[in-house]
Write a structure and sequence with these properties.
Layout: H1 7-30, H2 37-56, H3 68-85, H4 112-120, H5 125-132, H6 136-146, H7 160-173, H8 179-188, H9 195-205, H10 207-215, E1 231-237, E2 246-252, E3 258-264, H11 269-284, E4 289-293, H12 299-309, E5 316-319, H13 325-351, H14 360-386, H15 398-412, H16 423-426, H17 442-446, H18 460-465, H19 473-482, H20 497-513
Helix pairs in contact: 1-2, 1-3, 2-3, 4-15, 5-15, 7-9, 8-9, 8-14, 9-10, 11-12, 13-14, 14-19, 14-20
Length: about 525
């Protein structure tokens, strides 16, 4: 054991720790009321402990007046947090009553299917009751009356060998995924097992990988907005751009729910807008606000949002990637869980002289063979991510958080109106930012636009030079026509390498004869 520090050193360390606790609690207090109650309670307890210790310090060399400025700051933050903790609950929804024909108060007309869906997604009965505007006892009474158990579905009966086979399969497809993401993949297949079972299985089938992932764990930080659809973050990922693949993604800021992940052959503004409207708004409804970077490809989404909500609504925020960390952080997991596999595969093809991106036949065949495979991997990642448990959200999943917020917003009547924060909150320069989160990689920041650019490209050549596409639409259509009977999505047991090589051989022969 290390020797005990001198009394003065311990006091100095305590005051340093106290200052850190105060700064963290002040951040939570400044974010009120857009914080989870447990976060306010945690900060209140830690800060109250600091205050009690300061009041009890009995050191002949230190005067109590020395701590008065610090105690005054602490008292101010405690008062804010305490007031939030003890604010009156919003009125309960009286529900829709029906006449039962018997004596006594009429019963609530409660949609049990919604309640069960929210609970089975990982929310507690207390949270479900709050979202529906009733008490937990009311839900229990309805469950009892319907003869339905209040327990979640039991764990799937599966032995270690069968679980190891599934985990090995998922790890092979997503070799950089950790236990919680693997659990999300299993949940997406309706296989319910404890997280401890997944961790044990990973150790059995992938010991080295498990240790590596443990050491590379990413620390998560606080983020607050009103609720689901208050603020979306969208962005493009270009890690596979050298080979002609562009991935567009969008995440709901409140719940971390991945709204969409879409792989295509370009990053034109019209493409990003189409994906946003079709895969985002068409499925989840309009977000109140969206945050994106300064890239020209986001111009169409910005126009759509301003047309929907008006210029004064502040419907679209633009900034550097450092201001869009919610999506940037998501890319870390997506790259690790899906894109990195293909990056290494394409490098393998180039290193073994099976791929030359200057050869039009090879680069177009590469796109046609691997685009559906990349999209399938992204679909699996999205399904798994949306069902993985988030430690800092009390082990609830993004789906659970999103649906709970949506149901609450429907009950309170603002889901089909404006689900976002008020203008004053949204006007805060720090709104929707994760200022303490890890920054994107340096190479991405170097290429990050610093200002918006609304000028259109004058030609396709200008677009290609700017990296908007690698394969143009005409080349892809021509190759599809040439190999119209070829199955680009065929499974070959080699990740698509054999299919790609056969496509190149056939296409080379076809165009040599033409």
């Amino acid at each position: 054991m290390a020797a005990a520090a001198p009394e003065a050193d311990r006091l100095s360390q305590f005051l340093s720790d106290a200052d850190g606790i105060l700064r963290e609690a002040s951040f939570v207090a400044d974010s009120l009321p857009n914080v989870e109650p447990f976060e306010a309670e945690r900060s209140l307890r830690k800060l109250s402990s600091v205050r009690d210790i300061l009041l009890r310090i009995n050191d002949p060399w230190v005067s109590s007046s020395d701590f008065e400025p610090l105690l005054e700051r602490i008292a101010k933050v405690i008062a804010q947090l305490d007031a939030f903790q003890h604010q009156p609950e919003p009125p309960r929804n009286t529900g829709t009553h029906f006449v039962s024909g018997s004596r006594g108060a009429p019963r609530y007309a409660l949609d049990l299917s919604v309640a069960l869906q929210l609970h089975n997604a990982g929310n507690s009965w207390e949270d479900v009751a709050a979202a529906l505007g009733v008490t937990r006892k009311t839900i229990y009474n309805h469950l009892s009356y319907a003869g339905v158990s209040s327990a979640r579905p039991k764990h799937t009966a599966i032995d270690d060998a069968a679980l190891d086979e599934l985990v090995a399969e998922i790890s092979l497809q997503h070799p950089f995924s950790g236990a919680k993401i693997i659990l999300g993949h299993l949940e997406a297949r309706s296989i319910h097992v404890p997280i401890e079972a997944v961790k044990a299985s990973l150790r059995r089938v992938d010991y080295i990988g498990a240790i590596t992932r443990w050491h590379q764990a990413i620390k998560r930080r606080v983020y607050k907005v009103r609720g689901a659809n208050a603020l979306w973050h969208h962005d493009g990922n270009e890690k596979l751009r050298p080979w002609g693949f562009y991935v567009h993604g969008c995440v709901d800021g409140h719940s971390r729910l991945i709204i969409y992940l879409f792989c295509c052959d370009n990053k034109r503004s019209s493409t990003v807008e189409d994906v946003f409207m079709r895969e985002g708004v068409g499925v989840y409804g309009w977000p109140s606000r969206v945050r994106g970077d300064y890239g020209k490809e986001n111009n169409g989404v910005e126009r759509r949002m301003k047309a929907r909500w008006g210029m004064r609504h502040m419907a679209y925020f633009r900034g550097r990637s450092t201001q869009n960390i919610r999506m940037e952080r998501g890319w870390r997991d997506i790259r690790k869980d899906a894109l990195e596999f293909f990056r290494q595969l394409f490098q393998y093809l180039e290193e073994n002289e099976l791929l030359d991106m200057e050869n039009a036949i090879e680069r177009v065949c590469l796109f046609l063979v691997f685009q559906p495979r990349i999209q399938a991997a992204l679909d699996r990642v999205r399904a798994a991510w949306n069902l993985h448990k988030i430690r800092t959200a009390r082990n609830r999943t993004p789906t659970a958080l999103y649906e709970l917020s949506r149901v609450k917003a429907i009950r309170l009547g603002y889901w089909t109106g404006d689900p976002g924060d008020d203008f004053e909150t949204a006007a805060d320069p720090e709104y929707g930012l994760d200022g303490q989160a890890p920054l994107p990689p340096t190479d991405e920041l170097e290429a990050d636009p610093a200002t918006a650019d609304y000028e259109e490209f004058p030609s396709q050549d200008a677009e290609r030079d700017a990296g908007v596409f690698v394969n143009n639409a005409e080349e892809i259509a021509q190759m599809r026509e040439a190999l119209q009977d070829f199955d680009f999505a065929e499974e070959d047991g080699q990740g698509g390498i054999s299919v790609y090589c056969r496509a190149v051989v056939l296409a080379t022969a076809y165009f040599s004869e033409a």
